[in-house]
Amino acid sequence: MVEAVTSAVCRLQLLLALLAVPSAVFAHRDDQYLQATLVAIEPSSVRLQINLTPGVAVAEQVITLIDRDRDGVISTNEAAAYAESLKRDLMLRIDGRKLELKLTASEFVAPEELRTGSGIIQIEFSATPGSLAAGAHRLTLENRHLTTMSVYLINAVPPRVGSIRITRQKRNDNQSTGEIEFTFRPLHPKIAGSGGQS
Amino acid sequence: MNKKLALVLIVLLGAGLKSFAQTNSTTGTATAGIVAATKNFLATLDDAQRGKVVFDFKDDAQRKRWSNLPTTIFKRQGLHMGDLTQPQRDAVLAVLAAALSPQGYEKILHIVEGDEVLKKSSGQTIFGRDEYYVSFLGQPSTTEPWMIQFGGHHLGLNITLAGEERTLAPSHTGAQPAIYELEGKTVRPLGRETDKAFALLSSLNQAQRKEAILGFQMRDLVLGPGRDGQTIQPEGIKGSDLTEKQRQMLLDLASEWTGIMHEAVAKAKMDEMRKNIAETYFAWSGPTEQGSAAYFRIQGPTVIIEYAPQRLGGDPTKHIHTIYRDPTNDYGVKWWRR
Question: Cα separations (Å) of B107 from B233, B248, B296?
Answer without folding.
Answer: 30, 22, 19
